[in-house]
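Why predict the complex rather than its parts? Because the way molecules touch one another can change local conformation, and only a joint prediction can capture that. The input here totals 394 residues.
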Amino acid sequence: MEHFTQQVDFILELDRLKAVYRKTTVRDDNNRHENSAEHSWHIALLAQVLSEYAEHDIDLNRVVTMLLIHDIVEIDAGDMFAFAQQQDHEIQEQKELAAAERIFGLLPETQKAIYLSLWLEFEQATSHDAQFAKAIDRVLPVFQNMNNQGGSWLKHGVTKTQVIKRNEYMKTSGPKLWQYVLEQIDIATQKGWLKDE
Amino acid sequence: MEHFTQQVDFILELDRLKAVYRKTTVRDDNNRHENSAEHSWHIALLAQVLSEYAEHDIDLNRVVTMLLIHDIVEIDAGDMFAFAQQQDHEIQEQKELAAAERIFGLLPETQKAIYLSLWLEFEQATSHDAQFAKAIDRVLPVFQNMNNQGGSWLKHGVTKTQVIKRNEYMKTSGPKLWQYVLEQIDIATQKGWLKDE
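Output of the joint prediction:
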């Protein structure tokens, strides 16, 4: 029974990811901020829909699970804006590691080990699965901001160079998508949605 | 290129599910209403965490995909409260079928066919995969309402009989979970969170 109680505790804890808000906004809901739970749902489907563009053989089911769990650590660590300072990213990494230990640690030992290992693989981007998952996670805001007159890019003065750097996983893991992303970045820069510096 | 544009259009359309609100509320976010996108994320993980309780052999990846897509039709049809009148459910079914045709129809033909077929399988609950997916979809509000002093049950005067009927897929697809759900329903009734009639 303890085994099952642990599983229920984990599931209830997940509810809190619905209260972690990102910089991107939901155009069709009065531009309220998007939360990390609904974002995770969106990218899980994005990975499925765009899987044909993966350059390497990937296990799509592992990719989907990585994407479903990758933001859970934000329950403790909060969401960090993608274009924050490098130093802040390093502090964030420590917080997220502790969060992963605590939150996946709510589960029975075997499940904890599986999720923690998958989460680390994503973070460290050490496999083709993780690299494609990261590329997918990062490309969604490109679609969203292009569809929303510049969205969070414009609001926070993001530069073309930052978005290119942020999406570089795609260059090797999904080169056909990369071409498209570069074109979108050019359009966004021409429109003044991204700073050209 | 049209193939890819169709895929992007579908992905952008999905954003609208984040604006479809359910009766359940998010306890840790000032009890605001939960939307169907974040709900779909939550149950996809619930299915993974509780997969050991499936009575029959299931393909967990199909179950997860069913759960990720099953609510997309609400973009057009809206969310219907689980305990609405039978007549309303029948009208809703027609709306949802039209919505599935339109929304999955944004995708290239092959992908449309795959998703539409999976969505229908879930709706009709004709396979073990779909039956377990339905059981998972329906059990999450039990956890949420128990964790939230009766939540949407109490607010909308839901009866014990209604919740038992709503969760009956679990009796055959996850009998061990069914026992737990029955216990929770008894507790909720004693506490006055569910009407006993």
